[in-house]
């Protein structure tokens, strides 16, 4: 119920938090990264990237560069599209 309220109030912030939580601490929750980046890439990923940087002090793109490797990294960075300066 709380997640639904968060989505309704600020959808980009909700997904920025999901992405951040998927990458914090040891390991990465690959399923969450893939699900969010693919499902939101056409609709509001630019807003999500903006919220991510605003609340976490670094870009989603740079976090993906640190947290992922190989072809998986290339694919996720292509979905993310660009570094937010």
Descriptive overview:
Helix 2 runs parallel beside helix 5. The chain has helices spanning 2-9, 11-23, 30-40, 45-56, 60-67, 70-80. Helix content is 74%, strand content 0%. The chain is mostly helical and 85 residues long. The protein has 6 helices and no strands.
List its salient traits.
mainly alpha; 74% helix; 0% strand
The proportion of residues forming helix, as a percent range, comes to over 70%
The radius of gyration is: 12 Å
Average per-residue pLDDT, rounded, comes to: 89
- Give a short account of the largest sheet: none
Count of DSSP helices? 6
Query: Would you list the SSEs in sequence order as H and E?
Result: HHHHHH
The tally of beta strands, per DSSP, is 0
Tell the overall outline. globular
Strand content: under 5%
Unreliable sequence segments: none
Distance between the termini: 35 Å
Classify the secondary structure makeup into a structural class. Answer: mainly alpha
Structure summary:
The protein has helices at residues 2-9, 11-23, 30-40, 45-56, 60-67, 70-80. With 85 residues, the chain is mostly helical. Helix 1 (2-9) packs across helix 2, helix 2 (11-23) packs across helix 4 (45-56) and helix 2 (11-23) runs parallel beside helix 5.
Describe the protein's topology.
Blueprint: H1 2-9, H2 11-23, H3 30-40, H4 45-56, H5 60-67, H6 70-80
Helix pairs in contact: 1-2, 2-3, 2-4, 2-5, 5-6
